[in-house]
Write a structure and sequence with these properties.
The complex is a heterodimer. By secondary structure, chain A is an alpha/beta fold. Chain A is built from seven helices and ten strands. In chain A, about 35% of the residues lie in helices and about 25% in strands. Chain A has a six-stranded mixed beta sheet with strand order 6-7-8-3-9-10, sandwiched between helices. In chain A, strands 2-1-4-5 form a four-stranded antiparallel beta sheet, covered by helices on one side. In chain A, strand 1 and strand 2 form a beta hairpin. In chain A, helix 3 packs across helix 4, helix 3 runs parallel beside helix 5 and helix 5 runs parallel beside helix 6. The longest helix of chain A is centred in the C-terminal third of the chain and has 18 residues. Chain A is globular and about 50 Å long. By secondary structure, chain B is of the alpha+beta class. Chain B has two domains: about 190 residues, no CATH class; about 190 residues, no CATH class. In chain B, about 55% of the residues lie in helices and about 20% in strands. Chain B is built from 13 helices and twelve strands. In chain B, the strands form two sheets. Chain B has a six-stranded mixed β-barrel with strand order 2-3-8-5-7-6, surrounded by four helices. In chain B, strands 11-12 form a two-stranded antiparallel ribbon. In chain B, helix 1 packs across helix 11, helix 2 packs antiparallel against helix 9 and helix 9 packs across helix 11. The longest helix of chain B is centred in the N-terminal third of the chain and has 41 residues. Classes of the chains: A alpha/beta, B alpha+beta. At the A-B interface, helix 2, strand 6 and helix 3 of A face helix 1, helix 10 and helix 13 of B.
């Protein structure tokens, strides 16, 4: 008989409890087959990330940042090694379990915002609560309005994505990523399409939310602004972890 | 589900031109089917009505073996009065039977004292016969439908050939089943228009005259024609009649009587079959239109929205919901098409009725095509379209639900 797989989650965000590990990787490897050639995208990564941190993965193009984020976000599976996210071993999840896990635990912020064009800003933010979490109407309304207010998009809530600016789109995308109160938010180059001022505003919002909800943010980025805001910075090169340093706040 | 419907409708509105084109294509297919079904239905009911109500009846009962030899008008295969009484008694207990008429069929010769030619005759009781085949009196081109003893209704072609008109005297000569010949004087009571089908050019005399002409001691019935109350229940009543006559068997255990619906008595049933076959083919064309257009537009939609689908999948949308989003789109596309098609069909069918389009059937002209849309047809065609749209959407929807977010998000 097939054994039912259980996802065990840690209660990581309870106030007063010491920081716990939200992501843990051990000998993590990812290979891609390109024709007959095997490309080693990630090679034996070992690291842990504590809850409530803003963490940045940096490195040149092709260093494996996006691949790593895809693995942590359960969008892809490692070739070998173990990966634990929010207390769950995510390496063996099937398609349905992965979707369910992402919906319950992880928020995504995309470089190109990826808002659904047929939905208004409000509906985009509401979408995960409605279609993924099945949250009741009143609670949904409260959460959406709370997040829209947090990102300063309340007055733009009835507009469609093509009616707002890039910075506003990214703020809406942040609200969508955070509305379910995920334990972990993954952001791939979140400020790449934003101007200097907007990028700082967006980062400010993320920090504010981190402080308020104890959310862990993991970025992959080239952007020194983000690197400057990160509390832990991991360097990747050719799929290998070259080192980690505690982030130093730079003045904007 | 309401949210899936909302998203699906917005996606359809997002590609207005494409949605309009596919809707128009489906609407055209639905209209073609509805107009064809309505027009062919009207044509069928007109010709079937002409065949059954003008001469044949809906069902006929003969003595076993009569039908095989019907072209010879075999007098030795007529049923005795006792058999006819048994059948009459059985028919009177079947509520679906509206009327029935006993007939004696015979072949003979007609003479106007100058020329002589062959003809076939029905010996009938006019009152019973007119209830069973109500269009028969309307076939009288001149003269009277009253068919008193000593009178004859002469078919028009024969009357024209012999120069007969109402009131003219004629002589009918017939051979009885023993082989002896008898003749009897008649007066032409009326001239009868030809009816399509076998027996449509036969004359009529009263049943008592037929008995006398054939020197029968008692009426020996060739056939009993039956009219049923609801034509749509033809097979049901046919079954009931068969059931009630099943106990009438010969000492050898064989059935005494044979029962036939109009379909096995008239070659025009094949025309009806052909029309039904054409309806089936046009439905198959509709299925192809809906299937290809919905599948094509949905596949295009999945291809174009692959990044969006990837995003929805990445943020945790269950695969089943993605599947339903696309199936719902296909369903709404088909519903719009079916609704528009039915409205268009109503307009076209009304225009056909308004134009009073006429056609000829057999020897008669001026039949007015009177097509009608029925609720049953609207429902069945609409359901067919929706069902096919669901099938057409399945593959693209399945593809959407199986999208790998990581690959989809990399798509441009």
């Amino acid at each position: 008989m097939k054994e039912e797989r259980k996802i065990i989650l840690n209660p990581v965000f309870m106030k007063g409890i010491p920081a716990m590990t939200i992501v843990s990787a051990n000998k993590l490897e990812k290979n891609y087959e390109v024709g007959k050639i095997s490309v080693k995208a990630l090679q034996g990564l070992d690291f842990t990330i504590d809850e409530g941190k803003i963490v940045s993965f940096i490195g040149p193009s092709g260093s494996g940042k996006t691949t790593l984020l895809n693995l942590i976000g359960c969008l892809d599976k490692p070739t070998s090694g173990t990966l634990t996210v929010a207390g769950a071993d995510v390496t063996g999840l099937n398609r349905k379990e992965s979707a369910s896990f992402r919906g319950s635990t992880i928020g995504f912020i995309f470089q190109d915002f990826n808002l659904v064009p047929i939905l208004t800003v409000y509906e985009n933010v509401e979408y995960p609560l409605l279609m993924v979490r099945n949250v009741p109407s009143a609670e949904r309304k409260r959460l959406v309005n709370e997040l829209l207010e947090a990102v300063g998009m309340t007055d733009q809530s009835s507009k469609f994505p093509d009616q707002i600016s890039g910075g506003q789109k990214q703020r809406a995308a942040i609200a969508r990523a955070l509305v379910t109160k995920p334990k972990l938010v993954l952001a791939d180059e979140p400020t790449a399409n934003l101007d200097h001022d907007t990028a700082y505003k967006v980062l400010g919002i993320m920090k504010k939310i981190r402080d308020e909800f104890k959310t862990t943010f993991i970025f992959s980025t080239h952007d020194p602004k983000i690197v400057g805001e990160a509390e832990q910075v991991y360097s990747l090169e050719d799929g290998k972890l070259m080192g980690m340093r505690e982030g130093v706040k730079t003045d904007a | 589900m309401l949210n899936i419907i909302k998203i699906s409708l917005r996606n359809l509105m997002r590609y207005k031109r494409r949605t309009f084109l596919v809707t128009a294509l489906i609407a055209f297919g639905v209209m073609a089917v509805q107009v064809f079904i309505s027009a062919s239905g009207s044509y069928k009911s007109l010709i079937v009505g002409q065949i059954t109500d003008a001469m044949l009846g809906h069902i006929q009962i003969h003595k076993k073996g009569y039908m095989v030899s019907i072209e010879n008008v075999p007098l030795n295969l007529n049923m005795k009065q006792h058999g006819a009484d048994l059948i009459s008694k059985a028919l009177s207990t079947i509520p679906g039977v509206e009327a029935f008429s006993t007939r004696i069929r015979l072949g003979g010769m007609i003479s106007n004292y100058t020329e002589t030619t062959n003809l076939r005759l029905y010996g009938i009781s006019p009152e019973q016969e007119y209830k069973t085949v109500p269009l028969l009196p309307k076939r009288i081109l001149s003269g009277s439908a009253d068919l008193k003893p000593g009178q004859i209704l002469v078919p028009s072609l024969l009357a024209k050939g012999l120069g007969l008109k109402p009131g003219d005297p004629v002589v009918i000569i017939a051979t009885n089943k023993d082989g002896s010949v008898n003749g009897k004087n008649f007066m032409v009571s009326g001239i009868l228009d030809a009816a399509p089908g076998p027996g449509g050019r036969d004359g009529y005399i009263s049943i008592s005259d037929a008995v006398e002409l054939l020197r029968m001691e008692e009426p020996e019935i060739s056939e009993i024609a039956i009219r049923i109350k609801d034509f749509d229940k033809l097979n049901e009543v046919y079954g009931q009649i068969n059931e009630s006559l099943a106990k009438e068997t010969t000492p050898q255990g064989k059935l005494k009587f044979e029962v036939h619906t109009w379909e096995s008595l008239s070659p025009f049933a094949n025309i009806v079959k052909m029309v039904n076959l054409m309806s089936l083919f046009i439905k198959i064309i509709l299925i192809a239109i809906v299937l290809i257009s919905v599948m094509d537009v949905m596949m295009m939609s999945v291809y174009e929205r692959i990044r969006e689908i990837g995003t929805l999948a990445a943020i945790g949308t269950p695969p089943a919901k993605l599947l339903w989003m696309f199936i719902t789109e296909g369903v709404f596309l088909s519903l719009f098409g079916a609704a528009a098609g039915n409205i268009l069909s109503y307009i076209v069918i009304y225009a056909i009725r308004f134009s009073k389009y006429t056609f000829a059937f057999g020897m008669r002209e001026g039949f007015i095509l009177d097509p009608h849309m029925t609720v049953a047809n609207v429902m069945s065609v609409s359901l067919l379209v929706v069902a096919i749209a669901v099938i057409g959407s399945l593959q693209p929807a399945f593809k959407a639900s199986r999208v790998e977010p990581i690959k989809a998000l990399k798509s441009v």
